[in-house]
Amino acid sequence: MNFPKTYPVPCVTKRPFSFEGPLRVTVPGSKSITNRALLLAVLANGTSTLRGALFSDDSRHFLSCVKSLGFEAESDEALATVRVTGIGGSIPKSEASLYVGSAGTAARFLTALLGVSHGTFFLDASEQMRKRPMAPLLRSIESLGCDVACEEEIDCFPFTLRSHGFEKSDVTVNVDQSSQFLSALLISSCLSPKDFTTQAVGSHGMAYVDMTRKMMEQFGVKADVLEETSTLRRFLTRAGQKYVPLDYQIEPDASGAAYFYALCPLLGVPVQVANVHMESLQGDVEFLRILERIGCTLCDLPDGVLLTPPKAGTYPGITVDMHACSDQAITMAALAPFAQGPTTITGIGHIRFQESDRIAAIQTELTKMGIRCEATDDSVTIWPGTPKPSLVNTYDDHRMAMGFTLIGLRAEGIVIDNPACCKKTFENYYEVLEKVLCNLASL
After folding, report:
1. CA distance linking residue 75 with residue 110, whole number of Å
2. DSSP codes of every residue in 203-242
3. Is the peptide bond between 136 and the residue preceding it cis, with omega within 30 degrees of 0?
């Protein structure tokens, strides 16, 4: 898709429409599941076929890295399939140079894998990824025997890993800034020749870790919980377990679906996203429970969850802990100006360390619109109001682009700067949105 430099959001509520619906939407495959499945397939012994895979900047960078390491991998974007042949946990090349772009999963997962393998590997990343946290993971692989040499800023990309396998059978990692550190170590833990214990300090992102462990088990490896408190978790991976190749169906992206489910309370229309179900591996389906709290009605049907709007035609402001679905904090922030009272989003301190400082971005962009917004280290409170026309700075953050587009559907004069940044995870987001808006406009 050719992206314009800006995207003027059409204000739907300024033109009359009558719609009983539901709006039916199809979204691409899950980024989180695609990239986990890709790494698990790489570690299996044989050929896996991944169906319904996401093709975006992140997944293409991950796939490119896999090929650079010497693995056989082929993809068919039209059929949304990837075929990967693993060799039982070994890396074909003992020397390689990789570029992970802005893909956090590729950056963290490959760093952990290569850090416990054997060889010399140079890894670089985009300017955005160079600024994102890596120190906790680098300290962990160093403790396992990997030599890490950062080429520029300490504990940041680019760096060279000189790895020598596992020199011990346990590791500790802090996950306050990203749960991907823990997921990365867990996935590679079965390569240890001995029973391996992974200890995580902190409380962030356990829904994504649960996804990782469930997918590991689907591919044949189990990481058992030894201890679990609010701030400490210990996992045991028994030696001798092997990943097996699978013909694997990837779920639709719950994060991408959430933007369209948000149209339900925002525009007062029922919405159904194909094949999204509440038993999903993805933590972001919890966002639908939050929409239930503000008056929407949820029904999980065979062809996807159907969400119907609040009967009152309005929705309240709420206080909500979104640590389990923090990627949707921006989406909730976009709904907040149109609520009947203030909205407080808590448990999101870690989103300051993602593609942008998302708490600061929310506060800055809503304030520009004349919406009262106050932030703390790990929360944001937003008061209702009428957003003024504004050019939204997206900070090269796909979730700021997609989430704040929703505001423009209810308020005139909202323009999204650099809409192309959504290519990171959902490159046809605006095409899908335009089809949805055409369905509304034609009624």
Report:
1. 20
2. -TTHHHHHHHHHHHHHTT--EEEEEE-SSEEEEEE-TT--
3. no
Task: Express each pLDDT in 385-412 by its tens digit.
Answer: 999 999 999 999 999 999 999 999 999 9
Q: β-strand 414-417 against 390-392: which pairing, if any? A: parallel
Burial grade of 277 (CB within 10 A; 0-12, 13-18, 19 or more): middle
Q: pLDDT by residue (tens digit) across 326-385?
A: 999 999 999 999 999 999 999 999 999 999 999 999 999 999 999 999 999 999 999 999
CA-nearest of 116, 326, 93 to 207 is: 326
Q: If we measure between CA atoms, which residue out of 151, 157, 161 comes closest to residue 118?
A: 161
- Do residues 137 and 148 make contact, with C-beta atoms less than 8 angstroms apart? no
pLDDT digits (tens, 9 = 90+) for 318-329: 999 999 899 999
DSSP string, 140-177: HHHHTT-EEEESSSTTSSSEEEEEES-SSSEEEEE-SS
The radius of gyration of the chain's CA atoms, rounded to the nearest angstrom, is 22
Quick check: 83 and 42 in contact, CB under 8 A?
no
65-76 residue pLDDT tens = 999 999 999 999
Domains defined along the chain, listed by start? 6-28+251-441 (3.65.10.10), 31-230 (3.65.10.10)
pLDDT, tens only, 210-234: 999 999 999 999 999 999 988 899 9
Instruction: Check residues 20 and 275 and name the one with the higher pLDDT.
Output: 275
Is residue 357 flagged as an active site residue? no
Q: Which strands form 390-392's sheet, in the order they lie side by side?
A: 6-8, 414-417, 390-392
* Residue 224 token pair: 């058992």
> From the CB of residue 429, how many other CB atoms can be counted at a distance below 10 Å?
23
**Hey, is 284 helix, strand or coil?**
helix
User: Whole-model pTM above 0.90?
Assistant: yes
Choosing from 57, 253, 284, 327, which is the catalytic residue?
Answer: 327
**Residue whose token pair is 């639709």:** 252
Q: Give Cα separations from 54 to 59, 93, 274, 366, 422 (angstroms).
A: 7, 26, 15, 31, 13
Quick one: average pLDDT of 143-148?
A: 98
